[in-house]
Specification:
two-stranded antiparallel sheet; single chain; Alpha-Beta Plaits; alpha+beta; elongated; 7 helices
């Protein structure tokens, strides 16, 4: 949602800036006795003086704007997704210090532990709120050797997660594939 907020904010600020520039141009043109330069505002002004507040076009426009505003309000009130994992201060030995890890920090720590296992050439780690998915690549090219690495890789990842002392440790999913040729 953060990207959508930035895009919407950029578009809205661009629209407001353009409207301001057009307003300045039209006011200067009107004060110097010129006709409308960019926007035909006299026609819009005449339409607005003839149209009553209870007309259907005004009601439909107001309804659309209200609906759009409610959608944006509901989107902003939705809680943001959790991008950090809190550590349990009692387990960490510092009861008065709050510690949190970003998902990326947890992923880097677990990847480091997994790649330290003998026989593992590389690893990819994806951390979500509830799950850590590890894809390790064995140095050996046969499947039997890769299967023997499943337990040490899982143990290394569990040990690193225990060292991080996460308050709600995510579930662990480990996959070891043989190395490529």
């Amino acid at each position: 949602m953060r990207v959508a907020n930035r895009v919407l904010a950029a578009l809205l600020s661009l629209a407001v800036a353009c409207a301001g520039v057009l307003l300045i141009i039209e006011v200067v043109a009107a004060r110097t006795g010129q006709h409308a330069v960019v926007v035909s505002w006299p026609a819009a002004y005449d339409w607005a003086t003839r149209t009553a507040w209870i007309s259907s076009s005004i009601r439909v426009t107001a309804g659309i704007l209200i609906a759009l505003g409610l959608v944006l309000l509901i989107a902003e009130l939705k809680p943001a997704r959790v991008s950090r994992h809190a550590a349990d201060p009692a387990k960490a030995g510092a009861a008065d210090i709050d510690t949190i890890y970003t998902r990326r920090g947890v992923a880097v720590a677990i990847r480091s532990a997994v790649t330290d296992v003998d026989g593992v050439r590389g690893a990819s780690v994806k951390v979500t709120r509830r799950k850590v998915t590890i894809g390790a690549t064995a140095a050996a090219r046969d499947k039997a050797a890769a299967r023997t690495l499943l337990e040490p890789v899982t143990a290394a990842a569990r040990q690193r997660m225990a060292a991080l002392s996460l308050r709600q440790p995510p579930a662990l999913s480990v996959r070891v594939v043989p190395g490529s040729r």
